[in-house]
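Notebook entry, structure prediction.
Reason for the run: the old model in the group folder had no record of what sequence produced it. Starting over properly, with the input documented here first.
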Amino acid sequence: MKVHTNSIRFDGPGSAVSIGVFDGIHRGHRRVLAMLREEGLRLGLPTALVTFDPHPRAITQPSAAPPMLSTLDERLDMLAQSGDVDHCVVLRFDEMQRRQTAGDFVRSVLVEGLRARALVVGENFACGRARQGNVPWLEAAGRKHGFVVNPIILAKAGAEPSAPACSSSETRRLIRAGEIEAAAALLERPYALSGTVLPGSGSASIDTPVALPSGRCTPAAGLYAGEVGLRPLGGAGMAWRRAHLEVHAAGETAVCSIRMPHGAHVEAGPGQALGLRFHRRIGRAAAPMAHPGALYASME
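New structure, fully documented this time:
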């Protein structure tokens, strides 16, 4: 997958395109990506995905900006691993983007930039100022500019008819409520994020406090069965070890205490980044982080 920043000009017959933030790359996103590849194969065209950074609501409604499920780099990695995207265009969402009309967006990005022949989006998609460019509007624009819109019915988060849509918003809600297994079902993988070992920490074989990044979706305060990962020096992959992860709120910053099982350890010094995977919630958090070493002995 080739990554393009802010602009692209296709020379060729065109492309099949999808648009969206795709935060977390959950099951609903994968449904869209599969249809994108299917359209590309049907038309004999490369696929292109247009995404945004930061999240548009960070500019349009800063007080309502969502905590992110993934960083931009993580998003790009997952899109590349899907095998469904040939080109990814990352547009910086700023005040100029906020003011851009749907017509200008379609003309500059879809028509002149990507030569779109097919557009694959969720049925609730909208683009442009005040979200003018919804699916009916885009279908009319497609008839004018020569592309066909393929709206995808949103996947459900559960089997019940009343189940909410499988969305980044629903995934965030589940994570923040501590329903980490239900969130993993939507993501089709355990929820993961990175943290930074705090000063005063030694080995992660005893309780090690780790600061969780601001702006990321943090699990509810509680005790979780999970894994801790450390990238080996000179290595390409992350080495994961089973651990208990206890999330605490500490003012505006969330802190996670790590306890490795008996006999296991991961060496990590202050300032070092650790990967954290959350598998299931197994208890409530202990008292706030006044005493990071006062964790639990349940792993013995």
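Summary: Residues 2-152 form a domain with the Rossmann fold fold (CATH 3.40.50.620).
The old model has been moved to the deprecated folder.
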